[in-house]
Amino acid sequence: MADRPGQVYLVTGGCGFLGRHLVKMLVERGEGISEIRVFDTKVDRELESLSTVAVRVNVIQGDVSEADSVRDAARGVDLIIHTAALIDVWGRNSPSKIWAINYQGTRNVINACKEMGIQFLLHTSSMEVVGPNAKGEHFIRGDEDTPYAIELEGPYAQSKAQAEEMVLSANGAAVAGGKTLVTCALRPTGIYGENNGMMEKLYHGLVKFGRKRLRLAGQEIEHGRVYVGNVAWMHLLAARALRERPGTVGGQAYFCYDDSPYLSYEDFDMQFLGPSGFRMLGHKPLLPYFTMYLLALLAEVLQWLLRPLGSFTPSLNRYTLNVVTTAFTVQTDKAARHFGYKPLVPWAESMARTAGWVRELDEACSKGK
Asked: Has residue 2 got a pLDDT over 80?
């Protein structure tokens, strides 16, 4: 097959939850793209079936923590979207592994840009590079410039924060061929949507618990959530803006947002779980915060004691308790002003798609009985 003119994109972590939606979005709505390289440790060759006459999708197995692997995948690439990360706030993985992927992996991507003359790098960051902070201070309707005491705990939040800082600091750096690197970062709040692995685990856990969920936080503890299709859409627009408006977006960080309602984590999830027969127990937290804190601390101690015997990863620990019980909502139009972002998928459709996927889980669960 003859080479086709156009841009070559590399999407690290492209087989993950966000990555799959992003690759599909780039194929369907990207402009001037001839090839999308999907780079991940666990590959899904079915993504190659997304290829069209205009856009070829190639799946490459590799690890961002291995510099040679990243460098090989990046040869001939015009733009990198770096979504690969190890999301772990439960202690399933060692801190060294989390740092190797989230921080060293990002360093490897930046170095590949410099060595291969790649001018454009879009980094998928996280709201957790800002907060909720370790003090449990609320961040309500904040934007990218809102003063907030950033005090992060745990290897995930800390590694993502340092990775983002490294990416933004690299803006303007020289790359091979005499050009300069243009970078920016997107900070999704809690991403939801169909095929979300964390929500699927929650679904199966609650099924075992009789489709009941204990309330940990008050209804007033609101959080910003954003639909995966809109996060993918913002990535596409930001990638385009890196090329077309480098002076505007270069070195900038943007929260990802849409018109999803502000609710507590638990009440938000019930928008999709409720229609399938799940129910919340209580209108207020069933246990006082101090009791939950002691339970979270006990779970961490048990995890440490049982680590030599096997894997015990409770969903409740002091970090996750702090996240659930600390309000964090964003209200910003920075992405709209800088590169014309508007949510592609309205809330009603986002909710319907996600609830439909939960019904599919129900059907599969029923067949498996």
From this structure: no
User: Cβ of 186: how many Cβ atoms within 10 Å?
Assistant: 25
Report how far apart, in Å, the C-alpha atoms of 270 and of each of 109, 169, 265, 275, 348 are.
Answer: 38, 40, 9, 8, 15
| 190 neighbors 326 (Cβ within 8 angstroms) | no
DSSP per-residue letters across 37-52: EEEESS--GGGGGG--
Residue 159 placed within a domain: yes
Q: What is the CATH number of the domain that holds 116?
A: 3.40.50.720
Q: What share of the chain is helix, strand, coil (3-state, %, to 5)?
A: 45, 20, 35
**Annotated catalytic residue within 9, 103, 156, 265:** 156
Is the residue at 237 inside a domain? yes
Q: Are strands 190-192 and 225-227 parallel, antiparallel or unpaired?
A: parallel
| Counted domains in the chain | 1
361 domain-assigned: no
pLDDT per residue as tens digits for the range 114-170: 999 999 999 999 999 999 999 999 999 999 999 999 999 999 999 999 999 999 999
Give the per-residue pLDDT at 3.
Answer: 42
13's torsion region: left (phi>0), alpha (psi -120 to 50) or beta? left
What value does the CA radius of gyration of the chain take, rounded to a whole number of Å? 21
The answer to whether residue 369 is domain-embedded is no
**First and final CA of the chain: distance in angstroms?**
48
Tell me: the pLDDT tens digits for 6-50? Answer: 899 999 999 999 999 999 999 999 999 999 999 999 999 999 999
Task: Look up the domain containing 29 and give its range.
Answer: 7-195+226-258+328-344
Please indicate whether residue 156 is annotated as part of the active site. Answer: yes
Is residue 290 pLDDT above 60, yes or no?
A: yes
Number of Cα atoms under 13 Å in the Cβ half of residue 63: 8
